[in-house]
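Reply to dn_fold:

You asked what the input looked like. This is it:
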Amino acid sequence: MAVLVYGPPGSGPDQVAAELTALGAPALAWDGLAPQPDPASEDGGALRLVRTVASLEACLARWPDGGQPGAEGWLAARERQRHLFTATRVVLDTTHRDRMAVARALAALPGSWLEGSAHPVVVAESFSFIRGVPLDLDCCLDARPVSNPFWVEELRPFPGTDPRVSSFVLRQEAASRLLDAAEQMVESQLRPEGRSRPLIRLAVGCTGGRHRSVALAEELCRRLLRRGAPAVVWHRDLEV
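and this is what came back:
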């Protein structure tokens, strides 16, 4: 299996490639500055493409070697990669992830997600609207109509993974409606003749990304697993 991880400078293609290699999927990275590498596929199979994306602000702050050539350099690098966009089935947003967070996220995925499995992996991701909507999602749910545990003094210190917070969130009718809609949205992304991509991302957002979105993402993952769907949960902003 040949894997090429590409994305504009500062979006972390080198980090993702290094983590994939460590997980047993040798990968090369391309940030659009040097000529495009040509990974050789030992089994003669198709090249796997993984695209990294991040906000312009994040990319400039993390530009290789500390340089910041500005938006023009970033746009030029991205333009050199545009011919790969339509053939790419995996996009990873690294805007709010450092190297350790990237490693944890990739390690959480089943090892077969790059192999063309018949069943896509569903990623239920919680996030904070204050920090921005993820750039790599397929569907998005707004958990802010659900009553916020933050305003309950005895619940405020605890995250959405805590049973007390989870119970407060999940017993609300608004939460049940959102979870039912989330399952339908995942179902709508599946194709009878086979999957369209290895990963399906459904992001659940709330104000701070700590209570409601976390509890709902956890429950969505549990529901999908009970249905036999490969699913993992990520919490983008829980530890911020």
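The helical segments are 13-22, 56-61, 71-80, 99-107, 163-170, 173-189, 212-226.
Hope that clears it up.
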